Amino acid sequence: MNYTIPTTSHESVLYVSFGSLARLPHAQLVELAHGLEHSGHSFIWVIRKKDENGDSFLQEFEQKMKESKNGYIIWNWAPQLLILDHPAIGGIVTHCGWNSILESVSAGLPMITWPMFAEQFFNEKLLVDVLKVGVPVGAKENKLWASMGKEEVMGREEIAKAVVQFMAKEESREVRKRARELGDASKKSIEKGGSSYHNLMQLLDELISLKKTRTCEKPN
Question: Strand order of the sheet with strand 71-75?
């Protein structure tokens, strides 16, 4: 990845990733690209190579962003943990997959939630309504079971508006505060004496005990 995340502006870059399974139709990719550009905020966008579908739009958009230095596209895979831990990252657009949620929470980052299918809509409710560290973009339909028609595509204006409001420090102050608090709590949980540390040690003890039991039960 030949890209240096800007370090001059704290929490100024938006990270965009929809995981390895979700696939956005071309019309939505176009609207998302324009929405990110029109927001005026710097971004890093991870796109699967096969989402190109033989179209040159994404290559042209990538070149345009390289020239403007306002956005960067990473194809197929990105070192997500390293990116999320960078101080310039101000949040993530996520499909609400559980792994991405855990990584974002651990980094203390708020999320723009854009669920695609299955339990991701329930995960969004947890982030938005319970933990209050997520801001919904407005996705309503399960994309695994339904085909996305033109009327169901999230428009560039809606996307740009959501990004602008999300990245504005004043408007998202409380969400960011809660995200940082949750991030601190998650780090404490893996320290010695923390809940995650305790659970892992308990699991190891049980596995060791199980091995000893099976060893004793073996016939001589």
Answer: 71-75, 42-47, 13-17, 89-94, 111-113, 134-136
